[in-house]
Each structure stands twice: as structure tokens, then as C-alpha cells.
């Protein structure tokens, strides 16, 4: 344990970090490995891979991901913004590259192979986008000479247009919803938020009309007889088979025929083996992380930190909600992972980066340090200089 009197970098980090938030994230990561032991082996066996292939790879991804999260949590708000800017620019560049040279999978070009590793760049753009949008909104409110709000508005189409071209409607909707939440939190009139909502509904209608696989998913959601509903029917069967207390670890049977049991539908596998009560516990854990983040955002005195924290936990919570709602047939299939639980390297590193930003921004900082980050002219006006 580090002493409060220590002025080392690690000592200051330990006494300023929110340990409840950190503990909840670590718990979620450990739970993800446990749940993956149920959903991973059957998929590996169907693909002719070693039984624990996905579990071993997830552990291999998790170690550097945790290191990335902890390293990012040491950053000051200023360096969080800089890291987000670099990540965003690189991520958008790789998304554009994937449109031309990436492999086509299920009608989309979302991935790019770099040094033998398949990367989904849109995952990394999400947390960076949230931080940049929060910074622009906060600067627009603080400095009348900077068109921060206008730039934040322009940032949205700059981000979602490449996503639509992939096409990746799920990520587009997620980014738009989080941006609208930031727009409203920044104090802008609800009339404009309603207008954004109308634009979102219009965009969804256009996606339904113009993108065949989006139409197919929506139609299967509304009418199971309109197409193949095997995946969602099997997922729902997992909940029925598991009941309240589950069959026990490794005892599930539906997972052997459930597609994407280790990624998009791992929540259903968890229900069969560990029961609905454990699934409720997972929901409570996600809710705790989101609510804890919002409480810390409310306590923070710096507008940028308040907005960025709000946006990051909103992104985290909505992504979790979408995945779990798909599993219980409350939304059409989206192909979105359950944070820190679903298998996937790009998702895991993206979440680690986003939660690293969150931990960094929620750390306790002296008021003098906050004032030191404000523009000198603003500080001068505050003291009558």
C-alpha cells in the first residue's frame, strides 16, 4: 500500500483514483473470463480449433488491455484530450482504408488486417469521439471566441458518414445517441435534441429502405415468420433452460448450437449455465458503473471532465443495454459486444482505452490544479487582472 505522504506518481494515483469504480471494472473483467469458459469452447470445437482457443486468446488480449487502461488512467485531462485526438484521427483514417482494402464480411467492410491481427477501427473511434465532442461543447460554452459547438456539430457527420459507408448501422446509432446526450447535457435546448431525434429516425428509415441486411433484421424482429429466426429463438431457449439458478458451469446444452455464443450472445449462455439471477447481477454491475460515473461527473467542477465522464459512461451503458436487449429479443440483432464479457480483441482494447479515460477524468484533483488548466486569460479575468 502506498502512503498518503508519498509524492510518487503511483502513490498519488492510488489516493486520487476512485477505487469503487476500479473494483467494479476489474470484477466485470474477471466475470467475463468465467462466462467465456461457458460460451467459448463449443464455438471453438465447431470451428475445429482447440477447446480453449478463445479463452486463451482473451487472456492474451486482457493482459495488455489492463495495462493500457491503467497507463491511460495516469493521464491528466489535457493529455486525455490529446490522446483522444490522435486516436480519433488514426481511427478514422483506418476506417476509410478498410472501405477500400478491408475484407467484406456479411456485406460490410469493418475490419482491417494489420501485421496479421484483425482490427475493427470503429471500436477505437467511439471513446475518442466522446472525449473530443465533450471538449468542443465545453470550450464552446466557456469561450465565446471559439466555435466549439459548431465544431462539435460538424464532428458528428465526420464520424458517422464513414460508419454508414461500411455499413455499420449499430455503431452509427450508438455514436449518435451518445452525441445527442452530450448535446443535451451541455445545456443546449431540448428543441434541438428533438430535432436530432427526428433526424435519427429518418436515418433509420433510410437504412431500412436502402440496406438489405438492415431491412432483413428489422423484419425478422417484427415478424419471425418473415425469415430465419434461429439465432434469437435459440437465445431465448437458453433463458428458459437455465431458469433462475442455471444448470451449472459447463452444463449448458443450447450453447452448442447457438451462433456467436462467445460474442454477441454470451449473455444468453450465461443465463443457461448460471441462471437469470446471475444475469440480473451482471445488469446491476453495469448499472453501478454507469451511476457511479454520473455521480462523479456531478461532483466534478471542470465542465470538460463533467461532459466527458457523462459521455463515456453513457457509451458504456448503452452498448451493454443494446447487447442484452438483443439477447432477450427487445431489439433487432445489432452485432454489438457486451463490454468486457464478449470475446474480441478490438472491443477489449477499445473498452480499456475508454475506461482508462474515465478513471483518469474521475480522479480527485486539487482546485489549484483545475485552475491551472484553464486558459490564462480566463484566470486573469477571474482575478481582475
From TrEMBL:
A Pfam family the protein falls into: FTSW_RODA_SPOVE
- Matching InterPro entries, A to Z? FtsW/RodA
Where, per UniProt, does this protein localize?
Membrane
Per the UniProt entry, the Enzyme Commission number(s) are: 2.4.99.28
Q: Which UniProt keywords apply?
A: Cell shape, Glycosyltransferase, Membrane, Peptidoglycan synthesis, Transferase, Transmembrane, Transmembrane helix
Q: What class of enzyme is it?
A: transferase
Transmembrane stretches, start-end: 20-39, 59-76, 83-102, 146-165, 177-208, 274-295, 307-328, 340-361
Q: Which reaction does it catalyse?
A: [GlcNAc-(1->4)-Mur2Ac(oyl-L-Ala-gamma-D-Glu-L-Lys-D-Ala-D-Ala)](n)-di-trans,octa-cis-undecaprenyl diphosphate + beta-D-GlcNAc-(1->4)-Mur2Ac(oyl-L-Ala-gamma-D-Glu-L-Lys-D-Ala-D-Ala)-di-trans,octa-cis-undecaprenyl diphosphate = [GlcNAc-(1->4)-Mur2Ac(oyl-L-Ala-gamma-D-Glu-L-Lys-D-Ala-D-Ala)](n+1)-di-trans,octa-cis-undecaprenyl diphosphate + di-trans,octa-cis-undecaprenyl diphosphate + H(+)
Q: What is its main location?
A: membrane
Q: How does it sit in the membrane?
A: Multi-pass membrane protein
Which family, according to the similarity comment?
Answer: Belongs to the SEDS family. FtsW subfamily.
- For this entry, the protein name equals Probable peptidoglycan glycosyltransferase FtsW
Supply the source organism for this entry: Chelatococcus albus
Amino acid at each position: 500500500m502506498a502512503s498518503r505522504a508519498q509524492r510518487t506518481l503511483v502513490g498519488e494515483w492510488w489516493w486520487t483514483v476512485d477505487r469503487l469504480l476500479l473494483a467494479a471494472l476489474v470484477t466485470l473483467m474477471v466475470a467475463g473470463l468465467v462466462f467465456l469458459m461457458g460460451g467459448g469452447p463449443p464455438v471453438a470445437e465447431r470451428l475445429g480449433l482447440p477447446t480453449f482457443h478463445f479463452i486463451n486468446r482473451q487472456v492474451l488480449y486482457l493482459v495488455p488491455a489492463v495495462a493500457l487502461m491503467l497507463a491511460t488512467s495516469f493521464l491528466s485531462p489535457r493529455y486525455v484530450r490529446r490522446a483522444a485526438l490522435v486516436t480519433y484521427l488514426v481511427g478514422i483514417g483506418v476506417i476509410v482504408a478498410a472501405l477500400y482494402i478491408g475484407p467484406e464480411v456479411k456485406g460490410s467492410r469493418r475490419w482491417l488486417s494489420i501485421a496479421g491481427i484483425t482490427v475493427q477501427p470503429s471500436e477505437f473511434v467511439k471513446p475518442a469521439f466522446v472525449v473530443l465532442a465533450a471538449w468542443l461543447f465545453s470550450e464552446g460554452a466557456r469561450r465565446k471566441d471559439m466555435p466549439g459547438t459548431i465544431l462539435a456539430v460538424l464532428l458528428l457527420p465526420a464520424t458517422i458518414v464513414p460508419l454508414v459507408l461500411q455499413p455499420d448501422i449499430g455503431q452509427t446509432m450508438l455514436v449518435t445517441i451518445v452525441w445527442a446526450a452530450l448535446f443535451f447535457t451541455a445545456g443546449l435546448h431540448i428543441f434541438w435534441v428533438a430535432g436530432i431525434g427526428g433526424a435519427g429516425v429518418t436515418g433509420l428509415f433510410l437504412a431500412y429502405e436502402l440496406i438489405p441486411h438492415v431491412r432483413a433484421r428489422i423484419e425478422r424482429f417484427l415478424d419471425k415468420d418473415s425469415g430465419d429466426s434461429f439465432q434469437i429463438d435459440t437465445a431465448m431457449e437458453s433463458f428458459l433452460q437455465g431458469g433462475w439458478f442455471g444448470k451449472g458451469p459447463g452444463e449448458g446444452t443450447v450453447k452448442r448450437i447457438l451462433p456467436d455464443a462467445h460474442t454477441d450472445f454470451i449473455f444468453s449462455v450465461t443465463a443457461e449455465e448460471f441462471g437469470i439471477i446471475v444475469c440480473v447481477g451482471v445488469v446491476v454491475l453495469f448499472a453501478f458503473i454507469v451511476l457511479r460515473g454520473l455521480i462523479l461527473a456531478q461532483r466534478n467542477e471542470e465542465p470538460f471532465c463533467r461532459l466527458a465522464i457523462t459521455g463515456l459512461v453513457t457509451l458504456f451503458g448503452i452498448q451493454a443495454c443494446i447487447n442484452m436487449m438483443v439477447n432477450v429479443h427487445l431489439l433487432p440483432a445489432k452485432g454489438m459486444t457486451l463490454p468486457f464479457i464478449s470475446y474480441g480483441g478490438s472491443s477489449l482494447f477499445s473498452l480499456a482505452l475508454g475506461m482508462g479515460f474515465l478513471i483518469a477524468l474521475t480522479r480527485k484533483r486539487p482546485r489549484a490544479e483545475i485552475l491551472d488548466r484553464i486558459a490564462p486569460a480566463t484566470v486573469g479575468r477571474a482575478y481582475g487582472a
